[in-house]
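hey m, so remember when u said the tokens were messed up on ur end? i reran from scratch. heres the input so u can diff it against urs
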Amino acid sequence: MLAGLAAMAVAGVVVGTAVSSSSSASPDLVRAARSAHKSVDSSSSGYFRREVHLEDYPSVLEAVLTKSGKSSLDELKADEVAFYSYLPSSIVIEGDTDLIDPSSYAPMTETYNAFSLQCHGCDEGFGSLNYLIVMDMYGEVKGIYPHNETTTVDSLKPSPAQSKELYLGLNVDFHERGPVATWSWDGLDDDPMRYKGDKICNSYTVNAHDQHWSGYEDGDRIWVQLTTESKHTIQLLDKEGNQHVQLGVEDYPTSWGSLGSTNKFGLIEDETIMQVNLKYLGSFLQTERYSMDYSEEYVPAYIEWIAGGTEGTLDLVDLDGTKYEVGTEEYESLYGGLSSLWYGAHNLEYFGDNQFHLFDNAYYEENSTFAGAYSRMLIVEVDTEANTATLVWEYDMGYHSSVYGDNDRLPTTNLLGCGWPFEPEDTSTFDAEIIEVVRETGELAWSTRVYGNGRRTEYESSTGGGIYGWVMYSVERMYESPIISSPSCTESSTGATLSLTTFNNFKLSLTYAATYAVTTTDSDGTSVELASGPFEFNAYWKPTELTIDLDGSCGSDGCTVTITNKIGDASSTEFTCTAAS
């Protein structure tokens, strides 16, 4: 097994000139203007571009030569079919620093994107390589693991139990199931991928589409979706793979039949509410609150509401304000008779404030047709009092993706997603992309585009469809350490008070333990603690506001505040205090 190696320097970053401005826009204006922002504005003063070639990394080259049987890179390049079976031709990163992080939350070199790159159909018998990759915003590879241990990695999330670790759902031979694994991506681990439970990939394990780290007290259990039992049931596994409590939705409509299978689930409110995405029905649902008892063998849950689809209970409201009431002919005719405003969706995720983010593939798999003009990143807001599910934001990709895709909200409020063109315009079209979009304007702030051999068009025309080329299931944003924003300190006759905003350095649907400490230096250079204590980061990557009373003055040299999360990732920033007006 090859270990992921630390990055080596590759092609340089190119910085552009000129300026760019942004303005706020209502959701319908964003919808109308979306086509103008398919590329990062290269005239911006914050523009940068970089081209990366994976074969420049020793661990990748070693894996490719071993797998291909070639003795050198020159020999591999001489065999074009073999080369493009194992490697993309290039990965191009473009961005605008003014749009990525206007509040300077974190350096670009300490802001990371994690994804799994796999080439579908590039080699018969699933013989191609997969690449688990962590890159910073400039395209510097921080961790890379070439492997052929699974056909794809579907679910991919930061681990709350270990710094610089991801936990993964492995999809073996497109069976949509496999073991759960973890990957330490900092390049220091001799055995980077570890399995939870059964490592025999072709036997029963768990569904590859989704896993969730549990808030259970020992902090090392994962919720997984079962595959050989009820498709409406999830189960808690410990780190040895032992099975614990099951949680199941009891009242699925019988009309759903086998199409009512879960391809994404979520647990919120201390794991007392379950949310489920139903890809084949154009629906997602939320259960009523249940009592979560981890000592039980089984906990039942019951549906509170269903958004979209023939069994939907919420009225749907489109971006232009048009309302479609459940049970009406207008509702039932949506998306060509699919009774929804989205279909075939992937990676549904709740981000608080009653808003659900998803990637609308707009794909009707039963007859292999696309229901919408384009696949799109979509935000749906649910109002149970009004009994509505309202589209409040979209970004169309300008192409269709029959499967896969993502849409996450970042601490900056930008949206991070991924997709791939099922029907490329020509041989110069990229195979897959990751994009970051400014929510207020629809501008493209950053992109990473993966280019293959340009033969997806040829494959499409000769075979009549299917997936060919480099794709990714999802993408995750992470930071080196927690974010500290806008520290402000005022002093009065009664003392000093520090206020700040902070975010954990990775996304969770749970609150997450952390501590703060404020220090200063006295006249002889000794560090003096003025305040310390525990707190919890808010769930859903929402901002956490702290107000801290200081036991003393910062003086003329100022103070330092340090935020440390549960696994020891820490950030510090300096500040000074001003007199209260």
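this time it looks ok to me. The longest helix spans residues 58-68. if urs says something different then somethings off w ur setup not the seq
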